[in-house]
Backbone:
């Protein structure tokens, strides 16, 4: 499935995805590591910050996760990973 960053459905899902980024909130975070490992963790978001051109989620445990590697936040799927919603489960 091809994702266009300029389509209205991308903009709507991007808005919902970003609305799930609430500092101090405990969330289920699903993301990909630098080695493309799929990680699912229950974490507290400390803040959304920027380093150069990269947006990062800073977690309460000190970990920094690039926002472009986040697949979902509390079930709010990133529009950058539309196919992952079909394959994820809480097993």
Residues:
């Amino acid at each position: 499935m091809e994702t266009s960053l300029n389509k209205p459905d991308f903009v709507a899902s991007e808005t919902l995805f970003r609305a799930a980024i609430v500092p101090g909130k405990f969330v289920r975070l699903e993301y990909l590591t630098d080695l493309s490992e799929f990680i699912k963790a229950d974490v507290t978001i400390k803040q959304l910050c920027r380093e150069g051109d990269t947006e990062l989620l800073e977690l309460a445990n000190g970990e920094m996760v690039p926002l472009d590697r986040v697949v979902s936040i509390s079930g709010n799927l990133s529009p950058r990973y539309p196919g992952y919603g079909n394959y994820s489960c809480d097993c």
User: Anything to note?
Assistant: The longest strand covers residues 38-51. The beta strands are 26-32, 38-51, 54-59, 64-66, 70-73, 76-77.
